[in-house]
C-alpha cells in the first residue's frame, strides 16, 4: 500500500510508489528516458518529447509530456535537475497546467538482485489556488497515486515481456 500524502496547506505533498522489475537497472533507466519509445509503455501520455532540439534526456534537458484525454490532455514542461544513469533522474516543472503550483519527481533504480531492479517513483506537488489546497491536494494526490501505479505496472509489463532491445528475465511459468 502506498503511503498517505504528506503536507500542509503551505508545503508540497510528497507521494511515493515502487515496483520490482525483472530487468537490469540500465534497461529500466534507458527505457524510461527514451522519449521516442515512451508511448510504447506509458499509458498516461499521448505525447512525450524533448525540447530545444535535444536528442537525448540528460541534465538540463527540457521535456514536454501531454496527458491523454482522461486527464484533459493537460501538458507539463519539465527540466532534468538530476541525471545519473542508471541510478536516478529527477525533473521539476517549469510550465504546467493552471491547477499545479509546483511539481517535481524523481525515479530511482536500485539493482536488488541479478536482473531485478526496484524502481521508486517519488513526486512532490502543490495545487493552486492556495486557499483551495485543503480540498484540491487530497484529490490530486488520489489521482496522481492511481496514475503513477498504472504507469509503473505498465513499465513492468513492458519490460518483462522482453521487448526488442531490452534484456529482461521471463517470469517463471
Provide a compact summary of the structure:
The chain is α+β, with helices and mostly antiparallel strands.
What does this structure look like?
- The two termini are 26 Å apart.
- Strand 5 and strand 6 form a beta hairpin.
- It is globular, with a radius of gyration of 16 Å.
- It is 23% helix and 38% strand.
- The protein has 173 residues and is of the alpha+beta class.
- Strands 1-7-6-5-4-3-2 form a 7-stranded antiparallel β-sheet, covered by helices on one side.
- The chain contains 3 helices and 7 strands.
- The chain has helices at residues 25-32, 38-41, 133-160; strands at residues 13-21, 45-50, 62-67, 75-84, 88-95, 100-113, 116-127.
- The chain has a single domain (13-160), classed as START domain (Alpha-D-Glucose-1,6-Bisphosphate, Chain A, domain 4, 2-Layer Sandwich), CATH 3.30.530.
In the sheet with the most strands, the strands line up as: 1-7-6-5-4-3-2
- Tell me the count of domains: 1
The percent range for strand residues is 35-45%
Question: What can be said about the biggest beta sheet?
Answer: 7 strands, antiparallel
Q: Any idea what the CATH architecture is? A: 2-Layer Sandwich
State the total count of DSSP E strands: 7
CATH topology: Alpha-D-Glucose-1,6-Bisphosphate, Chain A, domain 4
Helix content: 10-25%
The stretches of 5 or more residues where confidence is low (pLDDT under 50) are 1-9, 163-173
**Helix run count:** 3
Oligomeric description of these chains: single chain
Question: So what's the overall shape?
Answer: globular
Instruction: Write down the overall mean pLDDT.
Output: 87
Classified in CATH, the superfamily is START domain
User: For the terminal residues, how far apart are their CA atoms?
Assistant: 26 Å
**What is the succession of H and E elements?**
EHHEEEEEEH
Q: Which structural category fits the helices and strands?
A: alpha+beta
The level-1 CATH class: Alpha Beta
Integer-rounded radius of gyration: 16 Å
Amino acid at each position: 500500500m502506498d503511503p498517505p500524502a504528506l503536507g500542509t496547506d503551505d508545503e508540497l505533498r510528497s507521494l511515493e510508489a515502487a515496483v520490482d522489475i525483472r530487468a537490469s537497472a540500465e534497461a529500466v533507466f534507458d527505457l524510461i528516458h527514451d522519449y521516442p519509445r515512451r508511448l510504447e509503455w506509458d499509458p498516461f501520455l499521448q505525447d512525450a518529447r524533448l525540447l530545444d532540439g535535444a536528442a537525448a534526456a540528460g541534465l538540463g534537458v527540457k521535456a514536454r509530456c501531454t496527458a491523454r484525454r482522461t486527464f484533459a490532455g493537460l501538458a507539463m514542461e519539465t527540466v532534468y535537475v538530476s541525471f545519473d544513469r542508471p541510478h536516478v533522474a529527477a525533473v521539476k516543472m517549469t510550465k504546467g497546467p493552471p491547477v499545479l503550483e509546483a511539481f517535481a519527481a524523481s525515479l530511482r533504480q536500485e539493482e536488488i538482485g541479478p536482473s531485478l531492479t526496484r524502481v521508486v517513483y517519488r513526486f512532490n506537488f502543490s495545487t493552486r489556488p492556495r486557499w483551495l489546497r485543503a480540498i484540491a491536494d487530497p484529490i490530486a494526490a488520489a489521482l496522481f497515486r492511481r496514475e503513477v501505479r498504472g504507469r509503473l505496472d505498465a513499465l513492468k509489463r513492458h519490460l518483462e515481456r522482453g521487448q526488442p532491445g531490452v534484456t529482461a528475465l521471463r517470469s517463471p511459468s
